[in-house]
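User: I'm putting together notes for a lab meeting next week and I want to include a structural view of one of the chains we've been expressing. I don't have a solved structure, so I'd like a prediction I can at least talk through. The sequence is below, exactly as it appears in our construct file.
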Amino acid sequence: MGDQLNTASLDETSVSGKTASSVHNGHVPPIFVVGVWRSGTTLLYSLLNQHRDIRLFYESDLPVLWPMFRLASERRNWVDKWEYWNAGVSRHDLDPARLTGEVHSLADAFAMAGREYAAQKGKTRWGCKSPSYYDRMDSLYREFPDARFVVIWRDPEEICRSVIKAKATALWFTRPGMNHKALLASRKLKTQVDKVLRMGAAVHQLHFRDLVGNTEKTMRGICEFLELPFDPAVTDLKRADRSAVFTGAHHSLAKGSTIVATRERNEALPAELAGKIERYKALWKAQSGDAWMLSARFSANDAAKPGMGERFVDQIKFMLLRAWDILPRIAFSLLPMSAWQAYRRMKYKDAEWVHQQITNKPTTLKSSQKSAPRCAVRLGKLTLQSMELDELLSNERNELKHVVTVNSEIFVYAHEHPEFESVLKNTVNTIDGRIVHLISSLIYPGRGLRKLAGSDFIYNLADHAAARGQRVFLLGADLQANRGTVEALRARCPELAIGGYSPAFCRNIQDQGWNEDILARIEDFRPAHLVVCFGPMRQEMWISQNANLLRHLGVRCAYGLGGTLDFVSGRKPRAPRWMQMAGIEWLFRVIVEPARLGRTAKMFKMPYFAFRFYNRQCAVGVRSLAENSSASTLGPQAGNAH
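Assistant: Thanks for the context. Below is the predicted structure for the 642-residue chain, given as structure tokens.
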């Protein structure tokens, strides 16, 4: 980064004294970490939160709901509306009861929440990191004139490549124009930085490559800027708390335990996008040279600058994309929350769907805490159960709880193989798969049946076990997927006791030597939860055959989760979120794994079996009812004779 690493504005010196004295007088100025999406803000947030004095919100985005604080009626409900917007209260483990003081402005509310969040860990400096602030630093400065801004820059080419990769697992990045917005957002952020510097703000700028390449020097510069003693913990991710970070594989690297300095270049950017990036880099280099930390890092290139026509069209498109982001925020801030609950219920079939995609933590909204009651329904020959996660993951009985996540493939296997059907009569069968869930909901409307996909369920299991000090053992998949999942879950829950083993493939699950090796490893680890990934039917049969031994070895709950380890470890890509929601994840898997075509074809038998045996059960039920009625009319003897 050169001499620019620790450069701040000339006005920063005069502001520094005010900031320091403010801290000493009891007032705590906030810290805002700002950057474009995929620029390293999450990594910087994780490191700064390791400091003994700092605790930042993770994309609380409360400031983007500023219109809410202009209306007294909506201002009174700011805590609930903030929670419903992006789970800002529950993700940060805030108690709504402690945020009940009267507020007259955004600054009042944000400061109250920030101080409370920092105090949870005995810290004094609060703030927030969010890319959503890239175009509103001036508004933040007006609300908090003594705020400290830490701005991180990253090469637009790296940002766009990261955005494209994130599209596979994060629905938000699939929005139209994300690459265009990510490119021009860098320039918009620069205009904001220049503006707040002229206003007298304290701003510190750094480059992503310096953060990952020379972490200690970079973090020392930030601590000096914040007038805080350097804490070596800010250079290490091993104990970082990322519990407030949004769920999703696109944060897997940022949730890791190591800072990755270099990464292999993935597939090339689309030619049109790559050309546009090069043209804008040439333009920005010519305009700002080394005066802008970002353009100072651009290598010399002979690309033509974008013409006036291209720049005009691109700017109009950028303005429209920004408006597409801003208008929903304004509407959400001004309309009553009941209107948004109705909207989400209509769009997603579940008013809490957005919350479920953001975090695994329960919402703090009282109106949403009324969970659907536990129930069991009959689908085909199987009994499917729906219950709260804590109940599903707990076992107070003196026998092994065997949980089967029933998708279309397992459902068909159970109807084609009597021995497998008999196993599933003694297991806890949950609903996994959009089609199974849809048909169950159609047959049993109003039950609030819960869908549990194994690829998401394993994170719930990790959170549950970590909170209770219970051990988890992963059995199956190949060595790379097993190790990768262990590392991913450790990064998510640093306190989780987790182990894994990938046994050699064996067609005969009753092979004595193979089983003895597996059971010996389980005995050594003594897990409370066992995840078995041998593939559909084989894993359930193996758990059933070894249930008594596993219970004797301390296993309380066992789960068959198929290809989950491949997805969690990143060894295999998971279908984009929109395909999962549409119930066509199977199509994506056939495309990336053509060998699955035969298995996928079986899934289309699922509706046939569901309705065939549903009709049979109805007929049996009606006949039994008629027989009972006749028997009661004729009397005991006539009934017995019948």
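A couple of points you could mention at the meeting. The chain has 31 helices and 13 strands. Residues 1-25, 619-642 have pLDDT under 50 and may be disordered.

User: Perfect, that's what I needed.
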